[in-house]
Each structure stands twice: as C-alpha cells, then as structure tokens.
Amino acid sequence: MGGVQQWVVIRGHDRTRPLLLFFHGGPGASQLGAQRKYLPELEESYVVVNWDYRGAGKNYTPNIPPETMTMGHLLEEARELAVQLLHRFGQRKLFVMGQSFGALFGLRFIYTYPELVHAYVGVNQPTHRAEEERRSYEWVLGEAGSRDVAKAVHQLKEIGSPVDGLYKTMDDFVIQRRWLTKLGGVTYRKSPTQLNVISNLFTPELSWKERVRFPRGFAFSNTHLWAEFVEHNLFKEIKEVKVPVYFVAGEHDRICHDLIFDYADLLSAPHKEVIRFHSSGHIACFEEPEAFLNLMNRDL
Fold it and tell me: What pTM was estimated for this model as a whole?
C-alpha cells in the first residue's frame, strides 16, 4: 500500500463473516495485542482486520519518508487496503471501527469513501481537538487543586493551557497527560499501561525487533501527525455522513469529554447513536469489553 509492503493481521473463525477494519489510536499506538486480549470474541462474529498505520507497530521502519506521514496519505492507503480486502473476501462493503485518533481517522474515512462501508463504530470519538485539549487541561488542573496535589498544580500552571490544542513543547504535553492519568482522566479502574501498553508491546504478532522499535514508532508518528490531528474540528468539517454511525463514549474520559453528544446532535446520518459506557474512560472498548461486544453483536 502506498507503494510499499505493509503488514496486516487478519483473524477470524469464518471467512464468510463480515469484514471489520480497525483503525487504532495514537497516533502511532498499535493495538494489536489489546484487541486480541480483551476482544477475542469479535473474531467469532467478524473477520477482524488490524492494520498498523505506516509508522506504527509492525509498520514502523526508520527509513519512512517524513513527507508521507500525513492523514491524507494514510487515508489513501486505508482505501487501498479496504478495496483489497473486499476483493479477497468477496464482499461488497465492510464495517469500520476506530478508537481515539483512529476514530477521527475512521470518521474521515467513511466520509470520504462511504461506498465501501456498511456502518461505523467510533470509540472515544474526537471531534473538536483544540477544545478537547483545553477542557482536558482545565479538568486536570481543577482536579489537582480539589485534591490538594500541590506538585501537580505547580507543574500544570507552569506549562500553561494549550494554544489551539498544542502545548509549547512535547515535554509539557507529557506532563499534562501524566497527571491526567494519575488523577483518573484517562482510564477508569484499570491502568492504561496494562490496557494499552503491555498487552500491545508483548503481543505474539510482534517480533523482538519490532518490540524494541515500538516506542520509536509511537514517537515518530506523534512527531509527524499530532499537529495535524489537533487541527481538526469535525463540527465544521463533517456535518453529514452517508452510513450509520455508533459512537461509544466513556463516562470518565477527560481527553475527549462529552463533545461527542453535541456533535451527534449536529451530524446528519442514516442512523446515529451515542452509547454511554459508565465504567470507562478513554479506552472504552477494552475497559468494558462485554458491553462493547453486546454493541457489536447487534444488527448494526
């Protein structure tokens, strides 16, 4: 795809089941292992396709041209993959699922290529990234103050609120996310390291060389995609889609907050739902896998 060989992991019990193309989060955060660990039952109902984007997971190499690291380029590669999958499995359309960054990417995909898609499931769907980052900063600063965590208050005031979704440095961004994680704004009850790092880093699909490169791919992808990611405002960019959409919102998600409810009100679609997961944060599909499987086993 895109003129280079790329890894794709396809798993399922029955090749006649519907295709489900999963777009992972990040950018650069391959979720091969988390899906295998927390949602193996998906493979009973679907042929599940995990594709690490160019620059992430199994598809990171040090010689990737930086100019190819744009969402537009990745979208074209995703289209190539979808067309190949439909041809290989003899199907007319596929289902699309995205989480976090992958959900914004996924919504752009279904908007651009609706003819390829049955329905879309967006988990912790970003909408207006700059506003979400502003709210995330305000929440963690307020939470640190109410809990009297002086070190957090000092560090957060020192870095200041993001401007147009961006902190002054990547170190400042890391400080905000570190305190957001510690104060419960990323996941609920379960550790994000357990959910989204260990399971993905040690999945059997990765070789030891790929495990060593995994953090480099994450850093590389963020370096080249983050600024473009936070520019997006779906309230202005995408007001109508031509396929059914289902949005999963974690009640304790302080990265995306609840803007998805306002966005869903605005969005025109053949069918639209926002499903609240009450015991989840920003990784709802892995935090409440049973509830997520119940959704995916409906007639979407």
Answer: 0.94
